[in-house]
Design goal:
single chain; Rossmann fold; DNA polymerase, domain 1; Jelly Rolls; binds fructose -6-phosphate; binds manganese (II) ion
Length: 413
């Protein structure tokens, strides 16, 4: 399909306001009937209109009240919820991968719309500074989800046939609405895994990859899928994945105002991720994996990994580059600095006693395979406190390596 419009549900797709719903129910149930609300009971209410929620909770807590009274309390809950939105809503409620997805769509000129049944939707996106080209008014459609009306209204607004649109939902009723509208359905989470979506993902983190594929971009790298190992029984090989975003390493970049500005705008790009076949930390075993370091820079400084010494200082490591271009920056405790180019097919040995960090100086992801002694351990603190002695910049296409003037102030993790 050629995608021309992306339509999103709000709660559970773009933001997570579950905690506010819980707190609001907790408050009204306590005020009105002295009931201590539980997380377990809250499960009954997920994705359900508030009057129905109230009926379910009345049954669960054996509340004896007239239908009118229940409706009044449900309305009070909504006021409490809106109050929490006004006072407590922040970037924390934006689900991971959403800013990247919206940016990707914007960069490719694909308009976006919001199809939420909630009247609070315009307030939420406005307060969070999320930019959608259109927000369907739920009162403007005759039937709510699972009817397709709200999704069809979004397509109509842009004069597009539903077949050119992609809808994104986490709840079964929402996915039914998208399918009923004849759109391509991207489903998130458990309901989607059970079927009913054209593309199912386990979390919003994967949405940039899904939209990347729909836009015809090269498939996301998933080298970890090829890992296997015959470990001594009873150990079962597991692939551990670590994703590091800017906020996880904000103190590592030299241009701190630029870092703060990005984070304040709600932009928290993924800098790198690594997948590791975690062998038990036994002497004689090897750990191996793949690191994908994305292209980009902050204030001209190239994206890099945090970098570390091994806890067992006298432990070397091999890096073999599969894709992309960059360098391996290393230095030892005596201040000896060495760096090596990384390009497809090159193998680099990070010598024992040297802290090592990958730096991406190119325009595509830099992907390296690594292998090291499984019980080497990692010491992020020693190099994290002082910072590496060299920083790598790309300015006007030229790579420049400079002595570092600043030192990392933040406690490394
Ligand atoms: C393991 C190793 C690599 C890195 C990975 C991420 O010893 O060197 O697996 O762990 O490239 O970099 P850091 O660990 O510096 O965040
Ligand atoms: Mn290492």
């Amino acid at each position: 399909m050629e995608i021309q419009l992306a339509v999103f549900d709000l709660d559970g797709v773009v933001v997570n306001t579950d905690e506010f719903h819980f707190l609001a129910w907790e408050q009204v149930l306590l005020d009105k009937w002295g009931i201590r609300h539980t997380r377990q009971a809250e499960e009954l209410t997920k994705g359900i209109p508030r009057y129905t929620c109230m009926e379910l909770l009345a049954e669960h807590y054996h509340i004896d009240a007239s239908p009118e009274e229940l409706r009044r309390v449900a309305d009070e809950k909504n006021l409490a919820y809106q109050n929490l939105l006004r006072t407590r809503l922040s970037d924390k409620q934006i689900l991971s991968g959403i800013p990247e997805t919206l940016r990707l769509l914007r960069e490719h000129g694909i308009p976006t719309a919001l199809a939420s049944s909630s009247h609070n939707a315009p307030f939420i996106v406005e307060k969070l500074g999320l930019k959608f080209d259109f927000c369907v008014d739920p009162d403007s459609v005759a039937h709510g989800k699972p009817a397709p009306d709200i999704y069809l209204a979004a397509a109509r607004r842009f004069g597009l046939p539903p077949e050119a649109c992609v809808g994104v939902e986490d709840a079964a009723s929402g996915m039914a609405a998208i399918r009923g509208a004849g759109m391509f359905c991207v489903g998130i989470g458990v309901p989607a895994m059970g079927g009913g979506a054209d593309a199912a993902v386990s979390s919003t983190d994967q949405l940039p990859g899904v939209f990347g594929a729909l836009l015809g971009l090269p498939p996301a790298l998933n080298w970890a899928a090829g890992f296997s190992a015959a470990l001594a029984a009873p150990a079962v090989p597991t692939v551990g994945t670590t994703v590091r975003r800017l906020s996880h390493m904000a103190g590592f970049f030299g241009d701190q105002p630029a870092v703060r500005a990005l984070l304040e705008r709600g932009e928290d790009p993924v800098i790198y991720e690594f997948h590791e076949l975690a062998a038990p930390e036994h002497p004689g075993d090897l750990s191996f994996g793949i690191t994908t370091l994305y292209p980009g820079g902050i204030g001209g400084e190239c994206y890099m990994t945090k970098g570390h010494f091994h806890r067992e200082l006298d432990t070397g490591e091999v890096y073999y580059t599969l894709r992309g271009s960059g360098m391996m920056m290393t230095e030892n405790m005596d201040g000896v600095v060495r760096w090596f180019p990384l390009s497809p097919g090159s193998a680099v040995y990070a010598a024992k006693g040297f802290a090592h960090r990958m730096v991406n100086t190119g325009d595509e992801p830099l992907v390296c395979f690594f292998a090291y002694r499984a019980d080497a351990g990692h010491d992020y603190r020693t190099i994290g406190i002082s910072g590496f002695r060299r920083r790598v910049f790309r300015r006007g296409g030229k790579i420049e390596i400079e002595a570092a003037h600043t030192h990392t102030k933040e406690e490394p993790q």
